[in-house]
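Page 47, continued from p. 46.
Same chain as before, 151 aa.
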Amino acid sequence: MSHNIRITKQFSFETGHALYGYDGKCKNVHGHSYKLSVTVIGQPITDNTNVKFGMVIDFGDLKKIVKEEIVNVFDHATVFNKNTPHVELAKELEDRGHNVLLVDYQPTSEMMVIDFSKKIKKRLPKHISLHSLKLQETDTSFAEWYASDNN
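Result:
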């Protein structure tokens, strides 16, 4: 009998951002210690000649994907929506040697998890699918993406 198992790996990174046109304090450049939980689902490998026997995915392999696609890109960078006048500020910061990331969306937790889901899904092995993402911005605030909500 086959069993679907969910595997979760947690990551953290420091990222700055500003929300252009927002009506609160977050319109100012500020940062968060983000925590990202990545959950994939699949069946443990049953081939006992496979070095990954009994695993859905090696935690190390999942870590490599998420580090390359998300953590290494966003950590210690400041994210701006490139479709706003913040693009001028971004250019100024870049000229001064700052690590700036320009994205084509408002860099809220909600929009970031959508972006992350696309990037991670592209890299997962065929037999594994992305189940959910949880991006925690503060101790009490987070956004979640679930595959089941996005069929």
